[in-house]
Amino acid sequence: MVLPNNINEDGRWYRQLERPAVYLTYDDGPNPSVTFPLLDILEGAGAAATFFVSGYAMLSDMHVRCLREIDARGHGIGNHGLVHERGCCPRFSEMHDRILDKCGVSTKLIRPPYGDRSIALPYMSEESEAVGFLWSALFHDWNPLDVRLVPAMFPKCLVPGAILLLHDGFVPGNAYTRRDQVISLTQLIVDNCRMTGIQLKSLACEFQNSYQSPHVPAN
Ligand SMILES: [Zn+2]
């Protein structure tokens, strides 16, 4: 599905950017069995992405190690909330502090669960530097997907400034929890961008003033 272009209400919500690159974004992780292979694909292609991580997916040491690896390999980390339930407060502030505690990243990039901007408003008003990102295209990859059909969407999806929504993790309530299809989906996107000369960049790099990665803790 390709959504209408560019919302930028009060300068802090983006669905598409007026820049030449394409922005891969992954929600609901980290999910070590999927996220680590994704990092390898991205590294092999010289591509960067943004991972909007969920508190639900930060429970074990391995998940935290995965989070640190995302940062260490130069990708952006965004806040997808501590809680991921429809209509519930995502508790962005607590999630911000958890990310900071676990990997030393103070992110101002946020994406509300289900793209529900209304539940992000309290945080946006408290934290004036928070910048919200939705997406210009998604692939319904929280359901089983015939990845072979996806390249037909590329002419509309892979356009300058596009923000693509994919899922490396899953959250309570997802009926389908396998996410390995996102690995082949990412490979297809990366290959297509390489062929067409499109750069894949991290939102964090484009919004330096809204993102600081001061250090990675020693332990
Ligand atoms: Zn989500």
Walk me through this protein's architecture.
- With 219 residues, this protein is an alpha/beta fold.
- It has a single domain, classed as Glycoside hydrolase/deacetylase (TIM Barrel), CATH 3.20.20.
- 31% of the residues lie in helices and 15% in strands.
- It contains seven helices and ten strands.
- The protein has helices at 32-45, 61-72, 92-103, 121-126, 154-157, 181-196, 203-206, and strands at 13-14, 23-27, 49-53, 76-79, 106-107, 109-110, 131-133, 137-138, 163-167, 211-212.
- The strands form three sheets. Strands 4-3-2-9-8 form a five-stranded parallel β-sheet.
- Helix 1 (32-45) packs parallel to helix 2 and helix 1 runs parallel beside helix 6 (181-196).
- The longest helix is centred in the C-terminal third of the chain and has 16 residues, at 181-196.
- The protein is globular and about 45 Å long.
- Residues 214-219 have low confidence and may be disordered.
- The structure holds zinc ion.
- Residues 27-28, 80, 84, 113, 171 line the site of zinc ion (ZN).
